[in-house]
């Protein structure tokens, strides 16, 4: 059993490097299935459990995948005939595997993918994905826990999404690249990871415009080819580090961080009294002695990201007064708060609204992650808590952060990751995956 152990109270100082984005690499890996010629080579690939899971999904479909951890390069050859079925054992490990549905349908005219379940943060249906694919001409059936989509040919369509779903936008983009004619996705998701996917698809030979706006236009082409692509930086990892600096009175340069990807977070941290300097070499964050309370509402991009909500609640807890967090994207994303209560946090939950009474006098405790960003929030709380915090269930953290403890340790935190054996002895963990 592994744990991260933190002794709080250290100011973070220095420079931190950020990896490629989990939420960009996963759809990019799915997109590589569309290349019938050449191989796809991807740089700056984050070393994450989800990347290994997606590699296994692609291999189950008969793509050849090679991931070199040292150079962080991923090579995918999908040029040979592919299978059309993504099995339950893999899809159930990671919801994002549903994105192979659109790619397989476009490439093979048929796809069978296990229905992804919900997860701790919400039920997460895929009705919008299916609605979009149906509008492109797919016949979709659900049987025995699998979704099967078939189409002799996909035909471009005008698709309006009731909600700007990231995954639905990506699935439809992948399917539409090889459809006959033009597709418009209206009320599309506008996240930077959508833009990165569009860049990659364009490099492969797709005709896409408007990614990053509400309307994406895709003119279908006959075929796509392998390319080299560098994954965009992970704005959520960058944001997590910004909050770490903000709450520890730190002085941290987030190297090469992209300010316009984190505009709402920068705005809210500034309101809290954090000094933020967007420089050519990254974003410099200086935490104040006292944080001011602030109200936050999560929204699809360019609103405040739900994936920064748990981390932000730690900063709000430490602020001098009452702050409000309103979570509008997922229905159950306050699971970390019960763990923070063990650390002496004072708050009330009313539906999807959280009232945080600061300034909290956080005390170290044994806590357990319930999902990926909950894990990050608990580590952040440990950085400022009095005494020792032990964070368990690190498999969630490993989905989205590589060696977070090492990065924080290099900035001056007293933090280590250990494997605890049956006798209770602790062994240092040097490489998480
Ligand atoms: C791998 C990846 O990129 N994951 C991100 C992606 O997840 P994901 O793509 O799953 O998130 P969506 O944008 O699709 O979901 C947002 C909301 O829409 C709902 N919905 C979605 C699809 C659908 O068909 N029907 C429906 O009702 C969901 O239940 C949720 O309440 O965007 C989320 C919202 O920014 C982020 O938290 C995740 O980190
Ligand atoms: C919710 C997240 O990811 P996923 O959609 O992969 O579960 C996340 O990155 O915070």
TrEMBL record:
Its main localization is cytoplasm
Sites bearing 2-(S-cysteinyl)pyruvic acid O-phosphothioketal, chain numbering: 119
Q: Which UniProt keywords apply?
A: Cell cycle, Cell division, Cell shape, Cell wall biogenesis/degradation, Cytoplasm, Peptidoglycan synthesis, Pyruvate, Transferase
The catalysed reaction is: phosphoenolpyruvate + UDP-N-acetyl-alpha-D-glucosamine = UDP-N-acetyl-3-O-(1-carboxyvinyl)-alpha-D-glucosamine + phosphate
Subcellular location per the Swiss-Prot or TrEMBL entry: Cytoplasm
Enolpyruvate transferase domain span: 7-408
Q: What is its EC number?
A: 2.5.1.7
The pathway is:
Cell wall biogenesis; peptidoglycan biosynthesis
* Origin superkingdom: Bacteria
Q: Catalytic center at which residues?
A: 119 (proton donor)
The keyword Cytoplasm appears for this protein: yes
Pfam families attached to this UniProt entry:
EPSP_synthase
Top-level class of the enzyme under EC nomenclature: transferase
Q: Does the keyword ATP-binding apply?
A: no
Binding site residues for phosphoenolpyruvate: 22-23
A single GO molecular-function term is:
UDP-N-acetylglucosamine 1-carboxyvinyltransferase activity
Where on this chain does UDP-N-acetyl-alpha-D-glucosamine bind?
Answer: 95, 124-128, 307, 329
UniProt record similarity statement: Belongs to the EPSP synthase family. MurA subfamily.
This molecule's function is given as: Cell wall formation. Adds enolpyruvyl to UDP-N-acetylglucosamine.
* UniProt name for this protein: UDP-N-acetylglucosamine 1-carboxyvinyltransferase
Per the UniProt entry, what species is this protein from, by scientific name? Lapidilactobacillus achengensis
